[in-house]
Amino acid sequence: xxxxxxxxxxxxxxxxxxxxxxxxxxxxxxxxxxxxxxxxxxxxxxxxxxxxxxxxxxxxxxxxxxxxxxxxxxxxxxxxxxxxxxxxxxxxxxxxxxxxxxxxxxxxxxxxxxxxxxxxxxxxxxxxxxxxxxxxxxxxxxxxxxxxxxxxxxxxxxxxxxxxxxxxxxxxxxxxxxxxxxxxxxxxxxxxxxxxxxxxxxxxxxxxxxxxxxxxxxxxxxxxxxxxxxxxxxxxxxxxxxxxxxxxxxxxxxxxxxxxxxxxxxxxxxxxxxxxxxxxxxxxxxxxxxxxxxxxxxxxxxxxxxxxxxxxxxxxxxxxxxxxxxxxxxxxxxxxxxxxxxxxxxxxxxxxxxxxxxxxxxxxxxxxxxxxxxxxxxxxxxxxxxxxxxxxxxxxxxxxxxxxxxxxxxxxxxxxxxxxxxxxxxxxxxxxxxxxxxxxxxxxxxxxxxxxxxxxxxxxxxxxxxxxxxxxxxxxxxxxxxxxxxxxxxxxxxxxxxxxxxxxxxxxxxxxxxxxxxxxxxxxxxxxxxxxxxxxxxxxxxxxxxxxxxxxxxxxxxxxxxxxxxxxxxxxxxxxxxxxxxxxxxxxxxxxxxxxxxxxxxxxxxxxxxxxxxxxxxxxxxxxxxxxxxxxxxxxxxxxxxxxxxxxxxxxxxxxxxxxxxxxxxxxxxxxxxxxxxxxxxxxxxxxxxxxxxxxxxxxxxxxxxxxxxxxxxxxxxxxxxxxxxxxxxxxxxxxxxxxxxxxxxxxxx
Length: 750
Fold this sequence. Notes:
Number of strands: 58
Helix content: under 10%
């Protein structure tokens, strides 16, 4: 099915066609053409007749006409030149056809020949023969727009005018004998010269061709059908039709019937082409020859079916180039884009509309106005407009978007940029239309949020529409583009306990330039696809990095996607926000003091120290006061896996001798509240070389036994030497007990 596609804003062509068609009626009526042979144009949605464009002429050539066949019983108009190729080409009213037609009026006069110029060395004999005496048809003459070089000669007998063209070099060539045009000296200027400046000015061809194209397309494609597509049965020797429709046009394809005999059977036997049910024969593009339409029982002979020509149409709308007509007898020829070459000994009956026309051979051309009433289904229009919106619209620029617009199964590729529209005009009511946009190329930096379609402002999905008569359906396809999210990198320090701000985190590009840096955390834009080295600096020396950097970004569904940072570097994907976290961890040490005996000394009489081994800058010794239970004062961080030495020092001067019994590590279940009485929760260690694993909390204790001092008597009694010796013995016994405790440690301390 054909469609008419335009860029907006177009004229409203249905209205234009209707108005121009109505104007044609007024022009014809005003010119005195009142006859069934020249039907008035109809408005779209009713019926139409393409041969309104002929203005009553038998043959109309939009270019040139060259006549050389047997004769013309009718009239001819050529927008270009008119010439004859024979010595005496007869133009008459009637020979063997039918005489009940009216010749056109041009400038108020009946005319059989109208052209821009008269050329060539052939002669034309314009006799009006067999016209009713004293009728306009008997007085018909010739008119030319360009009469430069034409001269009039008095021809005898009859005193008629002979028009001689500039190509003539002798009395017997280049003449047009106008037998009904009395000779006067000024006859060329007064009668032969056309009033208007062109032949086309007497016609309304452009508007009527537009209407014909629209109506024919709508007629063939209308749903429900307004024509009967005739079915044929091929018997091998002939094609058989069993049914024609008497209520609507019957359509046959010339490609199916060319050179074949068509036999009518059953109800088809009684079919007679009529105004309501004409026979339309569609001729496909590429056709170069048209022969006889051989329907059994139909004859073009006088007195038989010759008048059927008035209701038979050969539609050559799709044909271009030259088409030879050979032995075609019945039917009007509508060929607005083709050149007709008539070369036949068989007479043709009908009307012709073509580009250029050339005739030869012995056959005549008899005027039969086409009188078929062809339906012109009511139509509607569809426009498709592309709109680009959203924050990212500016990134699209002048890029085009391609749609597949399918109209009754025929696909059209339509490419539109932002703000552009395409109009599909004059689609038959009921036509099904679908619109689908092809995949969109998203410009860099933008995010495509999808397309929505609205028909006359109402959201539609999917786009499947039906054309409504006399309605313009405006479809707007809006593509929304957002701005692509920035490509961001966030660095995060994870440390507990501790202050993240003690560390400086940095992402460095390949040129050594720090792109993202900050204390504890930092965020900044980065370039997608570039490798950034991840580093940290600062922070207490007691903390070490715990594992590799961990990098993730959120997916659309809320889950996290991992980004590899195992080598200490990261590549950030486009339009993502990647967070890279590095964890630092220390070890925790608690040192306790336990004092046994009844000396009056307590844990606070000692200072406990953890001294780091060499090799790490920034590490220093930590000294805390002795205590039996863990507190914030005796619990502190130290560098994991680094060697420390544990020592204790008395605070002040101890009057009693003491002995450090042991240094032990807690292996029980509750390091925050160790039980000193459960011997199995403690194990001896070498205090000169302890280490604590990262993230671990360990408890160590110093155990000291202090002997109870001996009470001495006042003056008198035992002598001093004896007391000293006794005291020394007791002290020695106490120390001995301490050694034994140190060695055995098999039961709870007392």
